[in-house]
Write a structure and sequence with these properties.
The protein is mostly beta strands. The chain is built from six helices and 29 strands.
Amino acid sequence: MPISPRPDARALLRRAAHDVMSSSVLLDPRRRRHLAVLCVALAVTVFGYVLLQPRKVRVQADGHEMVVTTHRAHDSAVLRGAGVSLRPGDRVTALVSPGADVLRVDRARTVSLHVDGAVYLVRTHAVTIDQLLAEADVAISARDSVVQDGELVSVNAPVDPPRLFATHAPAGDAHHGSDAITIEVRRAVPFTIVEDGRTTVSTSSRQTVAEALREAGVIIGPGDAVTPPLTSTLDEDARINVRHATPVTVTLPHDHTVLYTLSATVGEALAAAGIGIPQGAYIDPPPETPVRAGMSVRVVQLSASSDVAREYLASGTVYRADPSLPPGETRTVPGHDGVRVRRYDVTYVNGREVGRTLVREYYDPKPVDTVIYYPVQRRDAGQAPPASAGRVLRVYATWYNPASSGRSPSDPAYGHTATGAVVTYGIVAVDPNVIPLGTKMYIPGYGYAVAADTGGAVKGYVIDLGFPDGVQVDWQSQWVEITILS
């Protein structure tokens, strides 16, 4: 219901003057002078009534509302009288409400915009970052990144970032002056990748060589050589050389290990790994054999009995799906190495073997593979959680597996997360400042998962999806909208 307008002083004066003049034409000059004085007195009375009549104003500012009674007519004077100061960019909206005028103050946010080597202090009412950049006439390419208060965000993220799992109550002029929101546009720079002799040209706005390689889809594994180092800053037109190590399984008399080597021959690989050859032992295949992916090397130590040959057989590790396991859990059935024993009748001439006849062959013990059961990945279940299940969050999702840690499989910590869980389906690495450990979530195209790991490259709105070793990974790093489950 609109407020009734205050009387128009000029209309009242015109009406009074008309009435006086209508009657004065009938009077003599002396009486006309008396009527003129009366007219002036009437005008002063009307102006005093109209101009000095107080008005009620409801002032809404900084989350508070107050009602003031004032004789001031100008809105800025009313706000000053209410103790509300205006800053550049603030908006004042006059509204109509029953019983009082309404002045609403909408504060502009202060943003420190860093782009193309320049810093701009902007006062804005933009809701999202892309709106802010459009106001500033800043264009964004596909590989450019936006960093908000030190964290990687999408361009449609809010200018004033939400504080997940915490309360945030702005008071007064939040983000004013030194508390301004910092938004940085990092431009993608070109660089060259030389991977095992193959040259690729790419672009990235990530800060380090490791992040740029991950974005380009280059996975760095144990033993790989990268120049410049992974922690180096990515420079424009940088040339990154990547040499992938070759995995070689080495079976020792009482143990076995996996080497990730850049050496050319078996002998060089063993020497580089510090594996010595005991007296009376031999290498199969010979030391001069070229290294190839997936090969097995045995260091065979003959026993004191010349009529017995023992061949040490390394057990393997196999992965099998178990539909009964919940996301993020695994079950391990340990195996063990084995020994094939061959007994011979051996004939020597002058200490030199000249004949050998196999008498018996058996295993002592027989090798048994270690079996790691992992949960079945339900990607195509076709049912996402309802919209009311929790908060929707847009993040950049990459992937990793136990081999991504850079540890040797013989390391006791191999494949274990920061919380002690085993890396598999349903385990997700997060930045605890954004998503606390233990948070359950639903990820489109991946399934249900739990935040149970951290990582040096997992900062801000970046998550890493866990996969077990030995499975084909078809996940592509991308922005996705995940659901934080209540």
